[in-house]
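Need tokens for this chain, all 295 residues.
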Amino acid sequence: MAQAGHGGVEIPAPDDFRWPGGKRVGVIFRVALEGWSDGKWPGAGPMGNPLKPGTTDLNAIYWAEYGPRRGIYRLLKILERRQVRATVLVNGVITERYPEAVRRVAEAGHEIVAHSYAMDVIPAYLTEEEEKENIRRTTESIRQVCGITPTGWISPRATPSVNTARLLAEAGYEWHGDYLNDDLPYQIKFGDRVIIAAPGSMEVNDMPMYVRYGNPPRALVEVFEDTLAALVKDDMGAGKIDVTAHAHVFGRPSGAWAFERIIEIAKSQPDVWIGTRGELATQLRATTGDAKKER
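Here are the structure tokens for all 295 residues:
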């Protein structure tokens, strides 16, 4: 039936869905490489207290710039050392300001996901025409720098508009990650167009855990360990954990070690599949027998 919020028709994953290799628990490592438009900056910063309205916050701007200047390279080294392919969220503005950093991500073989043109360009605030242009501009900026066309999209704040899923399907995207409403992927149909909803989770994410709520980096490791243990015992079928490090947050030495420690733990478990959001969507198509739509 049509669902409020996107207007499409949902087709859930089968009850016996499993991750590749028949694994019951999936872990996806995400890295967010984010940037803001000129004259904009993160709403949440290291100092916590915002400046007076209209005052340029260079503290927040410089804090965010750590991601493409230094943090992404530290996280890429960790992923290379641990031989893990990650899902990397990239804003279009980052490809323009730091093309070499984005190319390094692509050359390392990681999945590049469109993350809007900039973090302040949130689909929920855009008209339908503005959103179409944002999708086009973001897609093209990534294609020009990396030579690849992104097949997945996650909006800033994981907050779509009521049109986002349909517009992404029309633009040829294969999956869309702005969902927190399920453990498993599912299809959304808009007439003859199909896009995969690839739900995420926020529990093992440095932004809310560390920046917003002030927990130490080791708390991220503890939450991951506890969640993994619960999923191993869970009798609800397949389950998944998303582990997210922002290049400007846990790309720093204070948090990067926690990201690496979580990778070590995940790789030590026999019934854990480690993959990307794109591979998640591919697995659903393989399971349901749904052919990849024309692009």
